[in-house]
Amino acid sequence: MSIERIIERCEALYGDLDLSYVREFKKEHHVKAIGFMPVYVPREIIHAAGMLPVGLMGAGSALEIIKGDSYFQSYICHIPRSTLDLGLNNRLDPIDGFLFPAICDVIRNLSGMWKILFKDKYVKYIDFPQNFKEGIGGDFYRSEIKELFDDISALSGHSPSPGELNSSIEKYNENRRALGRLYALRAEKPNLVPTHELYLLLRASNVMEVTEHTSLIDEYLAKVVRKVRPIRDNIKVVLTGAFCEQPPLTLIRAIETSGCQIVEDDWVLGARFILGDVEITDDPVKALSDAYLKNTVRTASKFEDDGEKGRFLVEQVRRLGAEGVIFAAPSFCDPALLERPMLQDVLNKEKIPYTSFQYSENTGQFDVMKEQTGTFADSIKLWGE
Amino acid sequence: MMGKTAHTEIQKEASMVLQKEMIGNHFKLLSQAKAQGKKVVYTFVPGNLNELIRSFGMLPVHPEINALQSAMRKLSGGYILEAEKYGHSEDVCTYVKCDIGMLKMGNIGPLGEKLPPPDLLLLSYTGCFTFMKWFEILRKEYNCPTVMLHIPYQSDGKVTPSMLKYVVNQLREEVVPALEKVSGVKYDESKLQTMLESSARTENDLVYIWETGKNKPSPIDAYFGGVYYIGPIFTAFRGLPECEEYYKQLRAEVDFRVENKLGPMTPEGILKKEKYRLVVEGPPNWTSFREFWKMFYDEGAVVVSSSYVRVGGIYENGFRHDPKRPFETQAEYCFGCYTNLNLPMRISLLEKSIVDYEADGFLINSIKSCNSFSAGQLLILRELESRTHIAGGFIESDLVDPRYFGAANIKNRLESYFQMIDANRGLKTSPSKR
Question: Does B9 fall in a domain?
C-alpha cells in the first residue's frame, strides 16, 4: 500500500462511527469485542482470550449529539455524551463488553450509567491502584486483573493459558516498539511524519487487531523513510493534556499548519502507556501488574507524591529538543485542568515557553487556536533562545 | 427551646451554639498549634480518619470545610479569582480554587485565625478524583510529607475481600507509619479503640436523628439543618467526648420537637407548617446558603432526607465503627461514603429514602464544579421518576463560586416545582401506599 492509501485507510477507520471493522472482524473470526474508555486497560488479556479490544474515544466532530446531551449537564466534558449517544443509537452494538478505567469521576460514573442503560452488556470499572508498592498496590491490582481475566474468559468461553497470555503480551510489546519507532522518526525528522498522519495511524490501534496494526505501522515506516517531503521552518513542541477526550483531526492539522511541529504528545495514550516491554515470565499476570506499577508514563490520572511533578514533561522537552509546550485540554476535564498549573509552574522554573487552550472533541472553530499557536511559534522563532 | 427574639434575628438552637464553640476552639487550637508543638494534618471529610489522627494527638484541617466556611462568609469569590490568576481553570472544582486562593492570600482561616501549614497531608482518596489532584497541588505548595489512602470505588455494589485487604494494608503499612513518623508518637491501639467506641455511640445518635425525619411534621430539615448536624461527626470531632455531648444535646432538641409536633428550626424560627416533604440529592450552595434555604422554608418545604449528609459516611445501613476491628472498620467506613457508591446504589438509596420518608418529591441540586456528584444525575432523575412515579425537580448551582448562583432562576424553578407537586396531589397516593 502507498502511504496515501495507508492514511486513507486509517482515516476511514477514524471516521467509522458504526465500527464496520469490528463488525467484520467479529463475523470473520467468530469472536467477541470488548470496548474500553481511555486511558489504559491491559488489552493483552482481552486479546489472549481471543477477543478484539476496541478503544472508544467518543465521536469527534462527526456526530450531532442529541440523546447523549439529554443525560449530561452543560458543564460535563464531551466524551461521555458522544459515547452514550453512540450507544443509545445502537452504533456500539458490536461491542459485547465495556471497560471503564479509573481516570476521573465522569468516566467512573459513566460506568454506573452503562450498567443501568445497557443491562445486557458486560460492564466493568477497573480501579487502578494509586499505591505503587508491589505488596500493597500490586497485590490489589493483581486481584483486579485476575477478576478481569476470569470475567473475560467466561465471556469468551476460553480461559487463556499463561503461554497464550505471554504470546499476547509479546504482540503488544511489538506494537509498542513499532509505535516507538514511529514517534522516534517523527521527532528526528518531523518533515517526514506529519502529525496528522501519525495521529491517524495511532487511532487505528483503537480498532485494528494488534498484529495487523503493527504491520501497518512498519509498512508506513518503510515507505515514509524513502519519501521526499519538504522541510518546514516550524518550531518543535510537546503537546500535553489530551489523554482522554481527543481533539478533532482538523485541530491537529491546524496546529501543524500554524508553524508548530509536534514531537511528543499524549493522545491515545493507552497504546503507549507502558514504557518499554512487559516482561515475558511464568507469571504473566504479575508481569502486567509490575509494568503498571513500575514502568508507565506520568499522566494526570495517576497520583504523584514524589515531588517530581512535571519532571516527565521537562524530560520529554529536553530529550526531543522541543522549544515549547502546548497545553491542550478538553473543556471541563478535571484531571488535565487541575494538573496544568502545576506543570506550568515547573516549565516557568525551567524557562520553557508554553501556550494553553481548551477544546472539545466537536470544536468547529479553529481560527483562534491556530492564531494562538501560530503566534506562539512566531514568538519562539523571533525571540527564543 | 427558642428564645423570644425579633423576627429578623437569626434563630439558633443550643446545639448550634455548642457547635460554633467547638469549631471556634478548634480553629484557635490550630492557630496556636505550632507554638504548642502540635502537629497538623490536612485531610478530607469523605473517608476521614479522625479517630486515628486524634489518637496520635494531631489536629486535623479539612480544606473543603475551610472553603465552604469561606463561602458562607462571602470570602470565596475573591479567593477563587485569586486562584484563577495562578492559572486554575474556570472549569474545575471551586473548593480547590477557594482553598488555593485562601492559601495565596495568607492562609487566614474562615474565622480570622491564620491556619498553620500542614505537617502531613493525609489524602484519603474516597469518592472524588479531584481530591487527588488537590493534594498534589498542596504538596507542591507546602512541600511536606504526604501519605495517600486509596479507597477503591464500589463499582459492583460491594466491597470485595481484595478491596478490604488493600485498604487495610495501606492503613497498616503507609498511613500509621507516616503518622508515627510525623507525630513522634507510637501507635496506641487501645486509645484508638476508645475513640472508635465513642464514634459508634455518636453514630447511633446521628441515625436516630435522621430517622425522626419520618415523623409528620418532620422535626428536622435533613439538608439545610442537616449540614449543621453532620458538622461535628464528619470533621474534627468524631471520637471525642465533646462530639458525644453535641449529639446528646441535638437529640434532646429533636425529641422535644417530635413530642410537641414541631417542625424543624430555620433561621427565622420553627417552621410553622410542613407543606412539602422532599428528598434532595447533591450538595447545597454555600455562597447564598441562607437565601437558598429561605426559598424552601418560605414555601413550607422540608427536606426529610438528603444524600449530601451521607457524604462523610452512611450509618442507616447498620454500619458502626467497630473498635474490635480497628483497621477493617476504618476501611469499611471509607468504602461506605456516599460518592464512593456506584450510580445504581445511589439511586436505590434515594428511592428508599423517598419511600421510607414518604416524600412528596425529590430534587437534585446539580453542582457545576462537582463531577463526582453531578455526572449521571440526569439519569438518576429519570430512574427515580420511573421507579417512584413522582416527578423530580432539577436545579443548578455551585459549591462556593458566587458567580454560579442564579437566585431568580432557582427560585422560579422551585416555585414551579412546588406548584407541580400541588397539581399532582389528589392524583396520586403517597409512594408508601403504592
Answer: no
Closest chain B CA to residue A138: B166
The answer to whether residue B233 sits within a structural domain is: yes
CATH number at residue B137: 3.40.50.11890
CB-neighbour burial class of residue B15 (10 A; exposed 0-12, middle 13-18, buried 19+): buried
Asked if B174 is an interface residue toward chain A (Cβ–Cβ < 8 A), one would say: yes
Mutate to test the interface with B, among A39, A65, A73 (most CBs of B within 10 A): A73
- Domain ranges in chain A are 21-160
Same-domain status, B320 and B230: yes
Which residue in the set A124, A143, A307 is minimally distant from B162, CB to CB? A143
ipTM: 0.96
Q: Which of residues B139, B162, B186 is at a domain's end?
A: B186
Q: Does A131 touch chain B (CB under 8 A)?
A: yes
CB < 8 Å from A in window 252-281 of B: none
State whether B216 and B76 are in the same domain: no
B387 in A contact zone (CB under 8 Å): no
For residues A213 and A204, is the Cβ–Cβ distance under 8 A? yes
CATH of A21-160, one of 3.40.50.11890, 2.40.30.10, 3.30.565.10, 3.30.70.1350: 3.40.50.11890
Chain A residue with minimum CA distance to B93: A334
Residue with cell 503507549: A272
CA nearest to A130 within chain B? B150
Whether the CB of B375 is below 8 Å from some CB of chain A: the reply is yes
Residues B28 and B66 in one domain: yes
Residues B399 and B279 in one domain: yes
Which of B126, B127, B79, B125 lies closest to B135 in space, CA to CA? B125
B67 and B103: one domain? Answer: yes
Domain that holds residue B283: 192-433
Q: Flag if B174 and A136 touch (Cβ within 8 Å).
A: yes
Nearest to B93 among A72, A103, A334 (CB): A334
Whether pTM exceeds 0.80: yes
Task: Report which secondary-structure segment, H or E, holds A46.
Answer: helix A43-48
Cell numbers 445501613: residue: B317
B300 and B345 in a single domain? The answer is yes
For residue B324, is it within any domain? yes
| B158 domain-assigned | yes
pLDDT, one tens digit for every residue, chain A (385 residues): 899 999 999 999 999 999 999 999 999 999 999 999 999 999 999 999 999 999 999 999 889 999 999 999 999 999 999 999 999 999 999 999 999 999 999 999 999 999 999 999 999 999 999 999 999 999 999 999 999 999 999 999 999 999 999 999 999 999 999 999 999 999 999 999 999 999 999 999 999 999 999 999 999 999 999 999 999 999 999 999 999 999 999 999 999 999 999 999 999 999 999 999 999 999 999 999 999 999 999 999 999 878 889 999 999 999 999 999 999 999 999 999 999 999 999 999 999 999 999 999 998 888 999 999 999 999 999 887 6
Same-domain status, B275 and B162: no
- DSSP H or E stretch at residue B178: helix B176-183
Q: Helix/strand/coil (H, E, C) string of B7-73?
A: CCCCCCCHHHHHHHHHHHHHHHHHHCCCCCCCCEEECCCCCCCHHHHHHCCCEEECHHHHHHHHHHC
Given a contact cutoff of 8 angstroms between Cβ atoms, the answer to whether A196 and A10 are in contact is no
Please indicate if any CB of chain A lies within 8 Å of the CB of B420: no
Residues of A in contact with B148 (CB under 8 A): 130-131, 303, 305
Question: Do both B202 and B161 map to the same domain?
Answer: no
Q: Is B41 part of the contact surface with chain A (CB cutoff 8 Å)?
A: no
